[in-house]
Amino acid sequence: MSNRRFTALKEALSHEPVIVPDMSTKVSEYFGKSVFDDRAMREYLPEDVYKSITENIEKSEKIEKKIADQVASAMRAWALSKGATHYTHWFQPLTGATAEKHDAFFNPASDNRSIEQFDGGKLVQQEPDASSFPSGGLRNTFEARGYSAWDPSSPAFIMDGTLCIPTIFVAYTGEALDFKTPLLKSTAAIDNEATQVCQLFDRSVTRVYSTLGWEQEYFLVDEALFHARPDLVMTGRTLTGHAPAKGQQLEDHYFGAIAPRVKAFMKEFEYEAWLLGIPAKTRHNEVAPNQFELAPVFEEANLAIDHNQLVMVIMDKVARRHKFRILFHEKPFAGINGSGKHNNWSLSTNTGKNLLSPGHTPKTNLLFLTFFVNFIKAVHENADLLRAAIASAGNDHRLGANEAPPAIISIFIGSQLTKVLSDIEKKVKEGKMTPEEKTELKLNIGKIPQIILDNTDRNRTSPVAFTGNKFEVRAVGSSANCAPTMIVLNTMLASQLRTFRNTLEKATSKGEDKDEAIFKILRKYITESWPILFEGNGYSEEWVKEAEKRGLSNLMNTPDALISYVSEKTKKLFEENNVLTEKELEARWEIRHENYAKVIQIESRVLADLAGNHIIPTAIKYQNVLVANVKGLKEILPKDQFETQAELQIYIISKISEHISSIRKDVQEMIDKRKEANTIEEASKKAIFYCNEVKPFLESIRYHVDKLEILVDDEMWSLPKYREMLFVK
Ligand code: ADP
Ligand code: MG
């Protein structure tokens, strides 16, 4: 068989699991060994420097040059002792990937010997020529410099012999060009506002930070098959492919036994993740065949995001060693569940309290309710912005496709907490409350923890769900950086908490009792926020109608979703909380439109190429076989027999012709549309054009190609089929 598909299949089936080196050592013995963490700092830094740097980090203070020099020299000594030869600032530009530019420690000295150099200056700041990173017009080409600056709150680590220093990345003029800068600013905003609210209840709280536990879904495909699919190579998803006879309907993959080859891959990347201090915890098969999930223990959000970015790099690298390719795309296979990245989010205090975990007393539960209700209110007010944060060309295939949360943002809190909220709404009086009423209210909220423990029903169809002690944002795409979601959650809640505090101050300054005033404000928020709370089936048609009645948006594609990203309301929110300036927001908006248009453009080019160079030639080849067969039959058979015996062949010949001509016509029209699209200058207009005028052809062409796939002789078809890619063990 010379067909490239069969060659690939043969190779795929011959892959044995790579034998994983002995990892019987206890994880605790090597966890974090490649990280310049607290333990390493203690060992390598003088006592006083260690104290001052940890205090600087804890309080997010500026670090003095003298201290930075000492930290740099300790870092260098530590890294050299582990065999590192290079160092790099490691940052997250708006491409979505991570960036690094390695410099050797080694520096030639005058006497022909070399010395290892790395000082505080190099640690703290560098000036990469970054003109090729997306800036959304923020950086003029004549001023191509960008600055990367050390983020001491995320520890440096060694990967493949290079010391990587997590940094932010900003333009020469100070505007953020990365994900981390606004994330750290949103962290400061939520710290500031949430701490003040906590102090209304508990004076010992001096710091609040958001926590993130992501759940990463992904697909594995055999490398040989991957290479035989130009669409996977170029776009990360299959642009054609008929659904296999057996998909996920038997639901036999979810939590099933993990295939040995996959397990070997998991073991190896987990080992690497643990060395880097990434607390990888859970692994399992997902719903779709060849789909899997990795979840770590949650961490402070900034660190969790760095770890997520890092783990994606490691998984990709290790997958290749195991002759797999990992797909982080949100929808690699049509008709098969796509991949998401649940973002479990909560707030923690310096006193070790989770603010979304109810306590055991009415007092602590009032604190819980304050954050719980303010969060709901904030989502209700900023639902469109949250939708914008998660929008991408890939994620558009999932949201609203009856397998992932709908594009309509709503919150699921469970029937018991819904009852708590409606009780508060009913029982809190407008005027002054009697002592009995207050006691009853407090008794009721004292019962919340038991209620939550009993409340185990979980609605998988909701984009945001309260799951006992955290909110789980489920609509995030699997390939996304979690930062945009975290930035929105932190910022909108910070802003909401400020409003809450101001309203409360007004009430108490008029002599109102604090607890009573809090209850009244929360009651008002509850009444206003009911429309965002939804307990039913998010996949249903009724919900779409109901949501519309409630005034909730249903933004089905990225250009539509991005509108709210630069609304006056959004600009005000980000400016007031000092997270992103109007200029920065607009730059991001532009980059995201550019990115969207490019994705559709590439998909469209690849599909046209596949159709022209793979599909149509194959279909014609098979059609010729049929034509020859019909001609032969006509020669040898009497007329009446010929008509019955050649009927099917003639039917297929005409069907193939129909599909070929539809594909030809669509491809030509799509190319014409693309030409038109490329004359549009403005990024947003271009993205809208690609979405409305070019994207529909991807679907119509695919329809005909998939029909051909089941008509054409299997032996001739050159692209690996779904059933082959999805069930290779
Ligand atoms: P599941 O949702 O699968 O039933 P869990 O509720 O145990 O499982 O946790 C799911 C994810 O939520 C894990 O990644 C975990 O780290 C994360 N998580 C748990 N508590 C918190 C928290 N306080 N803040 C952020 N993430 C959390
Ligand atoms: Mg989950």
Number of helices: 25
Shape: globular
Biggest beta-sheet profile: 9 strands, mixed
- Overall pLDDT, averaged? 91
CATH homologous superfamily classification of the largest domain: Glutamine synthetase/guanido kinase, catalytic domain
CATH hierarchy, class of the largest domain = Alpha Beta
Helix coverage percent: 40-55%
Given helix and strand content, the structural type is alpha+beta
Question: Explain this structure to me?
Answer:
With 729 residues, the protein is an alpha+beta fold. The protein has three domains: 31-178, Ubiquitin-like (UB roll); 187-237 and 250-580, Glutamine synthetase/guanido kinase, catalytic domain (Creatine Kinase, Chain A, domain 2); 595-725, Four Helix Bundle (Hemerythrin (Met), subunit A) (Up-down Bundle), CATH 1.20.120.1560. The chain is built from 25 helices and 18 strands. α4 crosses α5 (65-81) and α12 crosses α14 (435-446). The radius of gyration is 29 Å and the shape is globular. The relative contact order is 0.11. The mean pLDDT is 91. Residues 211-213, 215, 295, 297-298, 344-346, 354, 467, 469-470 line the site of adenosine-5'-diphosphate.
